[in-house]
Amino acid sequence: MKGKKNFVAGAGVLAGAVVFAKVLGAAYRIPLANILGAEGMGLYQFVYPVFALLLTLSSGAVPSAVSITVSGYLTNGDRAGAKHAFDVILRLCLFIGIAGTAILLVLAYPVSLLQHEDAFIGYLTVAPAVLIVTLISAFRGWYFGHKDTVPSSISQITEGLVKLAVGLVLAEALLPYGKRFAVAGALFGVVASEAVTLLIMAIVFKVKDKEGFVRVRLRENKEVVRSVGKVIAPLILCGLILPASQFLDSVLVVNLLKVGGTGQEEATALYGVFSGVVTPLVNLPVMVCISLGVAVTPQMVEGRERRDVDFVMDKCTVSTKLTLLLGIPFLLVYLLLAERVVGFLFPSIGEEKLATATLLLRISAPGVLGLSIFQIYSAMFQGLGRARTPVRIMASCAGIKLLLELVLTPTIGIVGTAVGCAVGYTLSGVLIMIRFFTFVRKMENSLKNGSAIALCGVIMAFVVFMGERLATGPVGLLVVGAFSAFVYVSAVFTLRIFSREELAAMPFSERLLLLDDKLRK
To answer: Smaller CB count within 10 Å for the chain: N or C?
Structure first.
């Protein structure tokens, strides 16, 4: 019971921090889009996928790899071994981060020529963040391995606050000098936020760990490096596929649109709408599921070390319920209220671009649930020592996505890009669920739980559909959203999606149990 409470509470804290950070991200993106415009956001999104790709190579798998390594030592009672492994990994991350920053600086000019020459200064500005984020990732993995999500949760919030303040101020201040300088100012906000986050993580580590930082030599710890390498290699491959796919989009989509007869400026603006407006909305629930995955990975490691299938399925059941409870409402809201959501969040987007973003968001909606499911089951496979499975699944789905984009984008425009992404992401979620239950050979009540949660979503969707017709203005939309959320939560408790034991393991458990008692009477 205690293990379950630690897992769900830790996941809840981290998910809450991610949601708040994403709210800050929206508070950042919305005025940023208003400052930069569609073309400026297109420039911003040229740089960000390449930056994300290098982050994946240098640091994307580090939190999971460190978490798996550290939790493995701790499960066997070897804290000294866990600390030594972390010291080696931190040293390794320093060199990897330096290499990643150097690579981005070298590639900045040739890549900008493939995209847009004004993107060059953006690459130069954001390059130091590769090193900083790589080091941050090692610290986060250390705490995740200890099943302590609080330091990472705090750092996510401060990261969002600093990026919001610095990025918007610089973007606005530099806009008179040209959009490329305004984009560079926004990207410097990313660098500043990561620098502050690294400082916080280092201070917390120094305070919590009495041994502090221990200098080690990699050549004297080849066995640890080799062991971590075996863990991290498939994680990098899995984490690399999506950023690589988005990088290809940043190079291909505009050119494919031009092949179809769209001009350079319009093609850049359309890509800016898709990547700067629609993609962040799709990624919002997905990022929360990634946080849930980070929390469940060390639990899977513990279950594997103990060879306890029931323990693994217990964590799998709770994780799946939480993923579906989050993903289904976003799927339905994006389908039913796409125009209202985009118009509310991006008021200065313009009528033509609003219509485009609305259509793209509706097409992309199924991918929200698919990608959310993929992230949580990918994390469970990684904890169980089967990291190659999600690599194969995502690589296949990314290939299908790319093929559809190549065929559809020149013929039906940016809609073809959205269709390719939706099909690829949805398929990834379906395939990884099938593979997981084939692997563990136990399905528990997964189909029953999924059906019950879907019914809750349908009830909520009906309220949203009827309320949206009556609501006027942003305030009315917020009222409909709040009431539909209340109906959704009530339906979840009425249909008893969670057992009493699962509710007792959640944050604010006493209030949840009291609510459950009232609805059961």
So the answer is: C
